[in-house]
Amino acid sequence: MAKTLTFTPKYKLALQKNYDAFISFARNKLTLFDDMEASGNKGWDCDKWTWHTKRGRKLTIVFGESLNTHNFIPFKQPFRDFAKAYVRYHQSLNHKDSKGWVGFLVFLHKALEEHSKLNNKTSVDLMDINNSIINRTESLIRQADISTSTKRGVAISFETALKFLKEKRIKLDIQEWSNPFPRQSDSAIKLDEDSRDKEEDKCPSDFQMMQVADAFRRAETPRQKYYTSLCVLLMCQPSRIIELGGLTVNSLQPGDKGRWYLMWYPAKGGDPVKKWIPKLIEDVVKKAFSRLIEISAPARAAVKFAYENPDVFMIHDQCITTYDAPQDKPLTYDQFAHAMGFKTGFISKKARVGWSNIGETKWLNNLISKINGVSDWKKELLKSQTISSDNQVVGRYSGDPLEIDIKTPSYRDLRQVVDESYKTVGFPSYGDAKIWDCITLIRENEFHKEFAVRQFSWQFVTHSQFRNAMGCKASEKDSAAGSIFEELDIYDEDGSALYLMSHQFRHWLNTKMKLAGAADWLIAKFSGRADEKQNKVYDGRTKEQKARLTKRIGHVGKSADGITVAQVNQLLDRHTSELPPPPLLLHDLGLPVSLKSLGVHRDGVAQFSGIGFCEHNYAESPCLKGGDCSVCSEHVCIKGLPNTLEELKNLKKLLDEQLERSLIKAEERVFGADRWVTATGFRLSKINTIISILEDPEVPDGTLIRVPNELDPSPVKRSLNVDEQQIIPTLDLTALALSDMKE
Questions:
Q1: Is 261 helix (H, G, I), strand (E, B) or coil?
Q2: Is the Cα torsion angle 368, 371, 372, 376 positive or negative in sign?
Q3: 3-state class of 573 per DSSP?
Q4: Which of 456, 461, 424 is nearest to 442 (CA)?
Q5: According to a count of CB atoms within 10 Å of the terminal CB, is the N or C end of the chain lower?
Q6: Sequence-separated (6 or more) residues with CB below 8 Å from residue 240
């Protein structure tokens, strides 16, 4: 049969050349991740790469399909090389503190693998990608058992990768593809009942928060004291769990005027900020702070020892060697176990726990193999034998010594394990602080019910640890994840188990600030946000609460002790934006008095004059009365308003004196004195009328008192040649003034 030749277009050869050059460049020119080691492989050949974020969080990418947290099926070649090249290139170009930007790799590999099987190919090659494979990848993403937001993130990463293939001229014959997964609508701005309930559920109830406070009061064990102290810090100021790591022994400080504050470093880009502690709970915060300092002391000592003693393992109280034991001497299993917190003793009537039967502890098996220069020490050296308690290799059944020498770890080897496990980027600093000053630091297994505490270790509390302590679902590997509320016999209002998320403390505080009328810029600054638009996510007010006019601009209370926000809400409970509170109530609560509450059909807020409120529309013209508010028809006095009556009486005394002098001058026929009698008397008559109404016991508090338009001559009307005598034809101003004097 004649041999068949397939013609390959020149442009495809050029694309393949670009692709090969990209792989070669990433493999041979770039050096990032060259120090990675896993399963005996290193650098490019390693299928698991790890890096740390700026805050020290460890991120790991595996080039395969994960089965669980430790096992995965590697990608097939040559797709695996493309995946590594893509990661190394982009991470070298721009360090990323996430893994979402490579989320498409698993789905694209599945689609390409299906294509290979249909075409009887054993390899999975990126260069096989076509429009059908792109559509199949989209279908796999859509069918995946992941959240809608995660699907959107994976699709965004896939869209970016396709653009990259075109820009680098690796694949040009593929369709323009855009992310088909829309951004989920924000439930915070939706009005349907489910969205409203969802938003309101984010904010915990006051009862739940009081139960947290009670847990702090009743805490007895170190675990209870630790987590309830974290809750106190989250309750007094809106913060995130990750921000607690930045609190140091010096974070709690007194201000110049005696007020105490905590210095916070926000996690979302905001500037470092002093967060003042409410006076009412200063003592509680101080107590929580001192508890954290005490509990974190061993972990802080461990990290300081590690910094001050490089290459030296910290021999602690649980070790069975002397404190000055040699660092390079191989350890027996019991010495190692006491140092690292492993189990000792018998696993059966005859067998003791030892080097040969410690189970699948991967890092330890790798360490012993590395010390002995082999890939698997059990298979290559031990060969079904066993090791005695003094590190002698003996026959499994006979117990006779064998001429096999196996090196075991020394304290110095264990120190390398400590560095690899606990040192983070920027060590020994955490942000602007030293790690040994951070008061939320704990040791590994600090509160574990089964595993021994690792005395030499240090770590920051994680989201999962805090969630477990707050009653959320425990992880399978953490058997110490019982709720502190269950331990203290504390339950929710309906008797069910109490559980809280770390972000709910922020929701609660932001909602309370909203109810108190705090401005958005202040809430954003207090919460450590760079953008005040993010406030809406943490607004947990109900529909009824949002309908109320609760924006406070002052603190004018009726009593010497002022008035609390709870009392304000109670007084305003029956009022809404459609049925606004009366102006007297608004004034007493230190709230703005709207024009509509004064009966003026115009949006806006009335200006307080000291004796009442000005209704003048300053958008039309400035004040034409020169601040002579008491006799202006655009001014409203309110019965019951503090100080109004006293101020008007003081003004009346001054006008009485002026009128008396004007009358004397008028009798002496001084030019213009009669005009003073008319003007002063007219003003005095209006003020006397207002005073009489304010003093009338039959007039209820809150009554609005205005000077009628007919008794308020207008300079504007005069300038327009309007005959005001036609408006008030029978009013004799001089007679009115003289009649008031006779009375």
A1: strand
A2: positive
A3: coil
A4: 461
A5: N
A6: 267, 268, 502, 503, 506, 528
Distance (Å, rounded) from C-alpha 226 to C-alpha 294? 10
Cis previous bond, 592, omega within 30: no
Residue 536: Cβ-neighbour burial (10 angstroms; 0-12, 13-18, 19+): middle
Phi, psi of 279 (to 5 degrees): -55, -35
User: Token pair 């309930």 is at which residue?
Assistant: 197
φ and ψ of 686, to 5 deg: -70, -40
d(CA 15, CA 10): 9
Q: How do residues 62-102 score in pLDDT, each as one tens digit?
A: 999 887 656 889 999 999 999 999 999 999 988 888 888 99
pLDDT recorded at residue 480: 45
Cα–Cα distance, 486 to 221 (Å, whole number): 13
Rounded to an integer, what distance in angstroms lies between the CA atom of residue 126 and that of residue 129? 6
Would you list the DSSP string of 167-211?
HTTS--SS------SPPPPPTTT--SHHHHHHHHHHSPPHHHHHH
Q: What mean pLDDT is predicted for residues 598-625? A: 85
The residues spanned by each domain of the chain are: 10-167, 202-310+421-502, 333-409, 629-742
The beta strands (E) that lie in 612-677 are given as: 613-614, 635-638
Structure tokens at 392: 């002698």
Alpha carbon distance 108, 103 (integer Å) = 9
Structure tokens given for 217: 């009061």
pLDDT of residue 336 exceeding 90: yes
Confidence band for 232, pLDDT divided at 50, 70 and 90: very high
pLDDT above 80 for 633: yes
In whole angstroms, what is the distance from residue 44 CA to residue 82 CA?
11
Q: How far out from the chain centre does Cα 582 lie?
A: 38
- First-residue to last-residue Cα distance in the chain: 135
Please provide the size of the chain in residues.
743
For the entire predicted model, the pTM comes to 0.60
Question: Given 3-state DSSP classes, what are the helix, strand and coil percentages for the chain, each rounded to the nearest 5?
Answer: 45, 10, 45
Q: Residue 248's beta-bridge partner residues?
A: 438
pLDDT digits (tens, 9 = 90+) for 127-182: 999 999 999 999 999 999 888 889 999 999 999 999 999 999 998 888 889 888 88
- Two tokens at 554? 């002052």
Beta carbons of 181 and 149 less than 8 angstroms apart: no
Among 169, 58, 159, residue whose Cα is nearest residue 101: 159
Does residue 187 carry a pLDDT above 70? no
